[in-house]
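Cast an eye over this sequence plus tokens and explain the fold to me:
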Amino acid sequence: MDFSLCPNYFLPNRTLGDNLSTLCSDSTPLGRVVLGLYGNLLPVTVSNFKSMCLASNSTASSYKNTLVHKIFPGRYFLAGRQGRPDKGEVRPPHDLARNTETVDSKAFSLTHSRPGVVSLSLSENDDDEEIKLDPGYRNVEFLITTGPGPCPDLDNKNIVFGTVLEGLDVVTAIASIPTYQPSERIRQFNDLAEFFGDERAQNARAIWNRPLTTVYISDCGELKVTQPPLSPSLP
């Protein structure tokens, strides 16, 4: 996955319908993150993730040109939120497999023990409730832990299916991007509104922890790994 910064995606003069590919021609590359995936342990989760990396970009069914929409400093960032492609969100293909591993206890055996852990977001999922109620809904939102320490509160709730092999410095750079943090007074008002069932409280929380500079997946795909040649036998 290649990550980039876009200076003008959320500017007020953007045209409705414009997407990241048209608005971010002058983006600044952050770098490439190479992920290793645990396909033998979690074949369905990994297969779906690879499908989202390899899907045709013309159908808006790829992670390419979609946002890192939340950053939680010192913990993890979220990407792959479902919704409208013109808002930098993901639209999974209709033929994506239903992930039966989300109800298999064995799928939750790996932990968020260090920076660079790649996990399918279940408890931390940020998709709208209306989208989740769709019978064809397929969860493709994922998180990557950023460190410096582990995130044990994510264990047994989200499915760890990969790790960062190269580009942990890029992950650290994403984690350092400033985010919107509401004041304590706003948080208190929001908590009170949520207690009384005010739907506006949930809408307000949607922008919390959103990066103040647009960071997005500018490219993604699969790297073919070849086995190195065997060393000649010693005499």
Strands lie at 2-6, 28-32, 34-37, 66-72, 76-79, 117-120, 142-145, 159-166, 214-219. Helices lie at 20-23, 43-54, 129-132, 168-175, 184-195, 199-205.
